[in-house]
Amino acid sequence: MHGAVMDIGPYTFDQFKEKAKEFHGFPAPGLMLGAYMVEYAKTLMPEDAVYDAVVETGKCLPDAVQLLTMLSVGNNWMKVVDLGRYALSLYDKQTGAGWRVYVDPAKLKEWPLIESWLLKTVPKKEQDTEALLAQIQAAGHTVCSSQPIQIHSRFLEPAEKRDIVLCPQCGEYYPLQHGNVCRGCQGSELYNHRG
Amino acid sequence: MHGAVMDIGPYTFDQFKEKAKEFHGFPAPGLMLGAYMVEYAKTLMPEDAVYDAVVETGKCLPDAVQLLTMLSVGNNWMKVVDLGRYALSLYDKQTGAGWRVYVDPAKLKEWPLIESWLLKTVPKKEQDTEALLAQIQAAGHTVCSSQPIQIHSRFLEPAEKRDIVLCPQCGEYYPLQHGNVCRGCQGSELYNHRG
């Protein structure tokens, strides 16, 4: 439809589908679209930039970041802040300057299957996933726009030094900064019952 | 020290170190200990169980879950709730019954390097990382205890159906359930500036 098919960084679309399946369980449309978004964002950053990421949705897109960069939830170089928007930003760790890539509603008009998937206007059972993935592959990052950003300074502050102490209630270690007992014992609504 | 060296699921310790480096940037002590914790938790679940995970810290441990299960932040089968405790739970998706594995302060007494690393009593520069990793390898999951849990029912509820609409302020799509404008436009403190 739109000329040559785009690769996803070092991967072909099909190779990345395999990686997605291995890590995420299945090649979710959001992960495949997200992969193009991550690779596009990378091209916008200066070549020598050392960057972190913030992802504005918890759905699929964080896994694209984790698979295509060294940033992860566990190393804390990727933050997820659920704003409900299909967007991510990469920013220089030192200066906070970077680029945001987001799905642009105007650009979706040419890709009705991507649009109806994102808007959830077609019930999942009736979704033609193969046709949707074909549109995602054909569109690549052209359904996105980008804008320069300056990340909020709170993302650049060094992690505070935490004092690790025993919780007097559960007897496990926790950061004293959380309070006099750990957050679990403060009532986290995580468990109905612990044996 | 404590008999035979434990593998990490299908991996030797050194093989998993390589996987950790690839995904996480380096074989962080927390990720290596976390790997033993995840494998231990898996052995406690019934063989045919279909389970999700909740991790009680954002530090390293989520990446062990992501590398050793099909659960990830992006597919939402792993949730991270920062209680500041080095612990994770696996639970049956249907019944919510499962097992929690946590670092047991009493069991750390035999492993001074693991204890001082967890308590951050030794400055990072003075930490002997090789010796620490050797203790983690020798200890495996024996520094942990486990307990049966029943996950809070809110984790078992199906995701609510969201209506995706255009934000009248930024013009991007967002879930109407978040409010009349998207959370980004409500003031998320994510960016100081967007171009």
Q: Helical percent range of chain A? A: 25-40%
Rg of chain A (C-alpha, Å): 20 Å
> N-to-C SSE series of chain A?
HHEHEEEHHEEEE
Query: What share of the residues of chain A does DSSP label as strand, in percent?
Result: 15-25%
Summarize the biggest pleated sheet of chain A: 5 strands, mixed
Task: Give the topology, please.
The structure is a homodimer of 195-residue chains.
Chain A lengths: L12 H12 L4 H16 L6 E5 L5 H8 L9 E3 L6 E6 L4 E7 L8 H8 L9 H11 L4 E8 L12 E3 L6 E3 L15 E4 L1
Parallel strand pairs in A: 1-2
Antiparallel strand pairs in A: 1-3, 3-4, 4-5, 6-7
Helix pairs in contact in A: 2-3
Overview of this protein structure:
The structure is a homodimer of 195-residue chains. The longest helix of chain A is centred in the N-terminal third of the chain and has 16 residues, at 29-44. Chain A has two domains: 13-155, 60s Ribosomal Protein L30, Chain: A, CATH 3.30.1330; 160-195, Wheat Germ Agglutinin (Isolectin 2), domain 1 (2-Layer Sandwich), CATH 3.30.60. Chain A starts with 12 loop residues before the first helix and ends with a strand. Chain A is built from five helices and eight strands, in the order ααβαβββααββββ. In chain A, 28% of the residues lie in helices and 20% in strands. The mean pLDDT of chain A is 94. Chain A has helices spanning 13-24, 29-44, 61-68, 112-119, 129-139, and strands at 51-55, 78-80, 87-92, 97-103, 144-151, 164-166, 173-175, 191-194. The first copy, chain A, has 195 residues and is of the alpha+beta class. In chain A, α2 crosses α3. In chain A, the strands form two sheets. Chain A has a five-stranded mixed beta sheet, with helices on one face. The first copy, chain A, has a two-stranded antiparallel ribbon with strand order 6-7. Chains A and B meet through α3, β4, β5, β7 and β8 of A and α3, β4, β5, β7 and β8 of B.
